Amino acid sequence: MKKKKVNLRDLKPNSEEQHSNDDGHNHSGNSSNIKAYVPAIISFSMLIIGIGLDYFDVAFFKDWIRIAWYGIAYVPVGFPVVKEGWESIKKGDVFTEFFLMSIATIGAFIIGEYPEGVAVMLFYAVGELFQNAAVNRAKGNIKALLDVRPNEALVYRNNDYISVSPETVEIGEKVQVRVGEKIPLDGILLSDKGSFNTAALTGESKPDTIVKGEKVFAGSINLDGVIEIETTKEFKDSSIARILDMVQNATARKSKTELFIRKFARIYTPIVVFLAIGVTLLPYFFVDDYVFRDWLYRALIFLVISCPCALVISIPLGYFGGLGAASKNGILFKGASFLDAMTKINTLVMDKTGTVTKGVFKIKEVKAIDWDETEFMKYLMAMEEQSTHPIAKAILEYKAEGSDYEASEVSEIAGKGLKGIVNGKTVLVGNKALMIANNIEVPNETENIVESIVLVTINGKFAGYVVIADELKDDAKETIINLQKVGIENIMMLSGDKDSITQQVARELNIKQAKGGLLPEDKLNEVEILKQNPDNKIAFIGDGINDAPVLAASDVGIAMGGLGSDVAIETADVIIQTDQPSKVVKAIKISRSTRKIVWQNIILAFGVKVIVLILGAGGLATMWEAVFADVGVALLAILNAVRLQRMTWSD
């Protein structure tokens, strides 16, 4: 069974035009859409008039006039199909739906069933129009992603900004972006700050504010003022280019269900053609009152019913709709096969840092002893201003009121901390080893703190401490709860961070299994142990950098890819663009909804066809029932698949 493929590459805008012609059926612009319906409207009008003339037995509407009338009504919708069938035969592909529809309708004319011959082809043509409309609708969400492909870049060359294709811009060049324009390439912001709409890339509608020196990504829309960026990648290596390439080729990885149906259709179609010949000729040897015309009519009905259009159209459309719905929600599947695989997942293994935590240090607790907290923090911040350590950066985010203190004579004590003078007082800032070296007694309560801790001494007396920890993502707890609700009971956390910290995070999230202090090969070994049980279908979710081996080894590798993680895009099967772990739950729900709709379509198509095939072979079904079993069921299946575009899934 041969259908025209929906090719995502048809959606790819080039540098000269914003729209594509797709596969010949789908056109941009209202005038093209109207033209597509003209042949069907002409045939329908002539068919209705002809049936009316037949009903009222108009005298002149007889013989060759009647044949010519229905023949003309047939041509607008029938000729393209007959032509396509002939072209397929010349290429050696005989048993296509075009061939089936052609011989069924021409056969109807041969036996004098002119209205039915026109009606079958008309409904088939209308079904094709509905199919194209459905495909266009399914393409919509993915096309929104592809439309973020920038078409031009204003590059500073020869003391002026000139408009060039993004593909010609080199690394390190300065690019200007005006309000409302798309960022053409990945780069670093040179302007003081900018506000960007990244909705088409991440699915998030909230504008993203970027400050000077931070990364900006191709495809983001500049919302506030003229900005300048310095490019850090060529266009072909930019995050958006890689994402586009991945999405455009997503349908290349067919699901097992889709592959089976296509193979089945190739075998099934020639079988029904020979069965139709048998229905026509074999009764001659077994039936006393054999009438060739009656059995030929039954065979033609059998042929019309046998077209597996509903299956071949609606199943890929169902998966395509699932891919589109996922991309709309900031989730990229690399193919329909991973939509299927996601439905079978019962074990989720996750990384900690950057997956359920934000991967940045934040102050968790400030404990000042015999000092006002604000005053205590001023001393600490004055010291940390002299350090470039990530922990120092976290401490400096503390907002203290009043004038800032300044530190002098600051010296670094290797592996222990800092020593200096603040406001005339000697200050020590560091770990327990620094305190011991200076004979400072540290409270016992600090022994039970598993996170990073900064101890402070002022003028030889212990003044307090600050606990620094990686923050949980806002939706981390909700994610674990919802994963359990959707049936993922076996959840395990593996981390390269200290085991004590990993265990504490696991307790906060109510994860029963957790291991810390692991190297990438240790994580891989843990997953391999889980895979020894064939009942375990494993998804691994990580940051896509250190976790590449585990992402590749899992049944489904899910990367918290954000927009800038090239390794995530390369390695993972599914990419969460927003860095929200809750999107994993949504990905599971979208996958299950897609599979449910695909199987509904399979059962509907097979069920109706089997019933009408039996009725047709027994002479109990007319060509009208055959039309419903073919085109009608296909339309119902398509409409069912399109439901994916309207569904919403909570995280």
UniProtKB/TrEMBL annotation:
Enzymatic class: translocase
Catalytic activity: Zn(2+)(in) + ATP + H2O = Zn(2+)(out) + ADP + phosphate + H(+)
Transmembrane segments: 36-58, 64-82, 94-112, 118-135, 267-287, 299-320, 597-617, 623-642
Positions of the UniProt region annotated as Disordered: 1-30
Family: Belongs to the cation transport ATPase (P-type) (TC 3.A.3) family. Type IB subfamily.
Protein species of origin: Winogradskyella pulchriflava
Record's protein name: P-type Zn(2+) transporter
Enzyme Commission code: 7.2.2.12
Top-rank taxon, per record: Bacteria
SUPFAM superfamilies in UniProt: Calcium ATPase, transduction domain A (SSF81653), Calcium ATPase, transmembrane domain M (SSF81665), HAD-like (SSF56784)
Main location: membrane
Keyword Translocase on entry: yes
UniProt keyword annotations, A-Z: ATP-binding, Cell membrane, Membrane, Metal-binding, Nucleotide-binding, Translocase, Transmembrane, Transmembrane helix
Subcellular location: Cell membrane; Membrane
Presence of the UniProt keyword Cell membrane in the record: yes
Pfam families xref list: E1-E2_ATPase, Hydrolase
InterPro entries, A to Z: ATPase_P-typ_cyto_dom_N, ATPase_P-typ_P_site, ATPase_P-typ_TM_dom_sf, ATPase_P-typ_transduc_dom_A_sf, ATPase_P-type_domA, Cation_Transport_ATPase_IB, HAD-like_sf, HAD_sf
Basic and acidic residues composition-biased segments: 7-26
Domain P-type ATPase A, first and last residues per copy: 149-248
